[in-house]
Specification:
Blueprint: H1 2-22, H2 30-34, E1 41-47, H3 49-56, E2 67-74, E3 79-90, E4 101-105, E5 120-123, H4 134-144, E6 155-159, E7 162-167
Parallel strand pairs: 1-6
Antiparallel strand pairs: 1-2, 2-3, 3-4, 4-5, 6-7
Helix pairs in contact: 1-4
InterPro entries: Spore_coat_CotH_CotH2/3/7
C-alpha cells in the first residue's frame, strides 16, 4: 500500500513538472487572468459577523443561503474590489469539515454582473488533500491535453481580516 502511494505521488509530481515545463502562459481570455498562477492570489472577504456566524453554525450546514459581502481580489492582473457579492458554503461533506469551502456569486444581488467574465467563483478548501495541489494538477493536466478541466489557481483567503488558509 505504501509503495502504491509513492507511485501515485511520483506520477503526480511528473504531471506537475510536465505542466509547468510545457505550459504556455496564455492570458488571452479575461477569465484566464483570474487563474494566473505565477503568484498566489489574495482574496479578502468582508461580511457582517451575523452572516458568518449563521454560515458556521452546524445547524445551518446544509443551507444554500447567499449573504452579501465585499470581495477584494488581487493577483498579477487584478487589484479590484467588488461590493454586494453573494457568499455561501459549498460542497456536501465538506460543509462539516473544519476547513470550509465557499462559493462567491457575482450576480446574485446585481443581476448580470460578472467579474472577468465569471458569474461565480468556487473557493475549495481541499480538506481531504493536505498538499492542496492534487485537484489543481489534475485540472491543469486535463486542460493541457485539451480535455475539459476547470480553471484553477491557488489563493490565500482572508475573511474579515482573519486568514482562513490556502484555497484552490
Amino acid at each position: 500500500m505504501h509503495l502504491k502511494k509513492i507511485n501515485v505521488n511520483l506520477f503526480l509530481l511528473f504531471i506537475f513538472w510536465f505542466t509547468i515545463v510545457n505550459r504556455a502562459q496564455s492570458t488571452s481570455h479575461l477569465s484566464e487572468k483570474v487563474f494566473d498562477d505565477r503568484q498566489v492570489a489574495i482574496i479578502e472577504i468582508e461580511i457582517e459577523a451575523q452572516y458568518l456566524d449563521y454560515l458556521f453554525n452546524p445547524d445551518n450546514a446544509q443551507s444554500d443561503s447567499l449573504f452579501p459581502c465585499t470581495v477584494h481580489f488581487r493577483n498579477v492582473f487584478f487589484d479590484t474590489t467588488i461590493a454586494n457579492v453573494g457568499f455561501r458554503l459549498r460542497g456536501n461533506t465538506s460543509r462539516n469539515a473544519q476547513k470550509k469551502s465557499f462559493k462567491l456569486s457575482f450576480n446574485t444581488f446585481e443581476k448580470g454582473r460578472k467579474f472577468a467574465t465569471l458569474e461565480k467563483l468556487n473557493l475549495n478548501g481541499e480538506h481531504n488533500d493536505p498538499s492542496i495541489i492534487r485537484s489543481k494538477l489534475c485540472w491543469d493536466f486535463f486542460r493541457k491535453i485539451d480535455l475539459h478541466g476547470s480553471q484553477a489557481a491557488h489563493a490565500a483567503l482572508y475573511i474579515n481580516g482573519a486568514y482562513y488558509g490556502l484555497y484552490v
